[in-house]
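Input/output pair, single chain:
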Amino acid sequence: MIGAVFGEWAGSDAGLGHLMLQASAQLETARLFAAVAVLSAFAIALFALLSLLERRIAWWGRDAAPG
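Output:
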């Protein structure tokens, strides 16, 4: 997620990264914080989805806890 946003900052004319740059330049704080909130929600949802997939797919790592 962070890489995609940085890529959009570097040279895109669409996306959340571009929207954040425009909102920051135009001093639209509400729009900037809304974009950050949406990006955070996407990142949290993606992390939760990958966590769930890891628990379902990597069954061999559950019982091998260190200690």
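The radius of gyration is 17 Å. The mean pLDDT is 82.
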